[in-house]
């Protein structure tokens, strides 16, 4: 198992003073969890984004603080400035490598469903992740979901159909649906949908006309 390493420095700036760090290309962060008191840190923004793309939220990151102390952590959460689209804060969760943890792992669709290719159906996903429990060394970046078994519109991929690596326990109900293929709309359904859309448009246009007429009457009354 490869572990990504991220450099961090101890931080004393809090509140508005942390904005100075952000202006310099740094990101305020905090570590909390097993075996450590909450610790305020600062990270290089570019390096963090690079590590996050590689590790995501379900892979271990080695956090080296001030070039010395190394903590094994998960990226628990992060905030982004909606205008600048820049990371503004990061939360890390420290972990004990000898204790099992519970987390969510992303499902990654692989293969092609015959019911889509041959029958013209549409692949639908019921969930994008599942809950697992494992030792940190067995954490997964993602879990493959092979949809090549979906040959008809009656076929359903369930949690129990997933190929789970050794050392990983799935916490979700085995019968939960993950993926299926729905048939294409019939001509009758498409006609009904078009008719419904036309009715909705007509209703909106009628409401707009009545609104305009009402406003005109109010203007006339004022005169």
Automatic annotation (TrEMBL):
Listed CDD domains: Ribosomal_L25_TL5_CTC
Any matching Pfam family: Ribosomal_TL5_C
Domain Large ribosomal subunit protein bL25 L25 span(s) in chain numbering: 6-92
A GO BP annotation: translation
Region named Disordered: 204-223
Domain Large ribosomal subunit protein bL25 beta: 101-185
Keywords associated with the record: Ribonucleoprotein, Ribosomal protein, RNA-binding, rRNA-binding
GO cellular component terms given for this protein: cytosolic large ribosomal subunit
Record's keyword annotation contains Heme: no
Compositional bias per record (Acidic residues), positions renumbered to this chain: 214-223
GO molecular function, one term: 5S rRNA binding
The UniProt record lists the keyword Ribosomal protein: yes
Function: This is one of the proteins that binds to the 5S RNA in the ribosome where it forms part of the central protuberance.
Family under the similarity heading: Belongs to the bacterial ribosomal protein bL25 family. CTC subfamily.
Subunit structure: Part of the 50S ribosomal subunit; part of the 5S rRNA/L5/L18/L25 subcomplex. Contacts the 5S rRNA. Binds to the 5S rRNA independently of L5 and L18.
Protein name: Large ribosomal subunit protein bL25
Lineage: Bacteria, Candidatus Uhriibacteriota
Gene that encodes it: rplY
């Amino acid at each position: 198992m490869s572990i990504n390493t991220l450099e961090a420095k101890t931080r004393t700036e809090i509140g508005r003073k942390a904005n100075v760090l952000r202006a310099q290309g740094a990101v305020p962060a905090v570590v909390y969890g097993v075996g450590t008191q909450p610790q305020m840190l600062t990270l290089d923004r570019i390096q963090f984004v690079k590590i996050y793309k590689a590790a995501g939220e379900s892979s271990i990151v080695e956090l080296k603080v001030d070039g010395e102390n190394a903590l094994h952590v998960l990226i628990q959460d992060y905030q982004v400035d909606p205008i600048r689209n820049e990371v503004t804060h990061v939360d890390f969760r420290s972990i004990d490598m000898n204790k099992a943890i519970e987390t969510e792992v992303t499902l990654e669709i692989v293969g092609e469903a015959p019911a889509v290719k041959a029958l013209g159906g549409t692949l639908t996903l019921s969930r994008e992740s599942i809950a697992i429990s494992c030792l940190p060394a067995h954490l997964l970046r993602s879990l493959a979901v092979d949809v090549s078994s979906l040959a008809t519109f009656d076929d359903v991929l369930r949690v129990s159909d997933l190929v789970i690596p050794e050392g990983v326990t799935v916490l979700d109900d085995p019968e939960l649906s993950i993926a299926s293929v729905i048939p294409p709309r019939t001509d009758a359904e498409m006609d009904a949908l078009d008719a419904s859309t036309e009715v909705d448009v007509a209703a909106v246009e009628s409401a707009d006309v009545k609104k305009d007429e009402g406003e005109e009457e109010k203007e006339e009354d004022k005169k």
